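[agent] plan:
  1. take the single chain provided in the ticket
  2. run structure prediction with default settings
  3. attach structure tokens to the ticket
  4. add a short note for the reviewer (M.T.)
[agent] executing step 1
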Amino acid sequence: MSKISIAILLSFSFCSFAQQKIPPPPIPSSKKTNTIQSNDTTSKGSLTSEKPALKTSRKQYVNIGYDENYQKLPKLIFETADEAEFLSLEKKKYIETFKPEGEGNYFYIQTRLKKHKFKKHNDYGGKLGWSGYEFSGYYPATKLYAITEHSTSENINFSQLFLLDSLNDYNYNIISFGDASVALPVPSINNKYFVYFYNAVYGHKNCDIGVLKINDKSNPKTYLSEYASYRSADFAVEKIIWKTDNSFIVKGYEEVYENNQWIKKYKYFKTEFK
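[agent] step 2 finished; step 3 output follows
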């Protein structure tokens, strides 16, 4: 074999090796290519990131519902109501529940700006324990996804509910009154307020109620703000239904131990605020 033939053969072999070992350059991703579908369901696209955490700028995280903030604001005043008045209220469907797109231990939420990847809530053992995220639903009127984050620390389980804005990726963390997350916020008739509650884990007639004002979305940082609150040592909350944009009725209860079991005894309460 001639020297020229050997050189050509070596050159060809090197090129073949390089093609096998050297990966192609990454293709730059275009901005804002993923959009929410018209039916507000999650996209069927794929995601390559392996990070399970919510990938938003820290500037897009807003914490609301701190107890010290509520202490500076008005307190709700309740009076007794009756069951008939509660049952007469319209049961408004305010949140859509569906199974989001998922694969393995992950599920995906598509916003207008990007697709987010979340590790499913599960028992991962060891220090991780019961950790991950749980999808709770979508508020079509305010374009917010409700997601709960679970974590374990020193054998204690914690959870926190947050609302992810599907239009601008702002993340509104609703600070809990205890270790577990608060109940899903209920929007008022015309989406002017959210009301939510937290029942004391070890109490039988104790709860906290928070009201958030829904503001203009032109300033996302102040879109949701604390407005009023209530702390009860007389009842826990079973359900809340709005009567108007400024009044709602609570189906409350007290747990009592009778005939070797805990049973709920219900009472109803209503409040109106300006």
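[agent] step 4 note for reviewer: The two ends are 96 Å apart (CA to CA).
[agent] ticket updated
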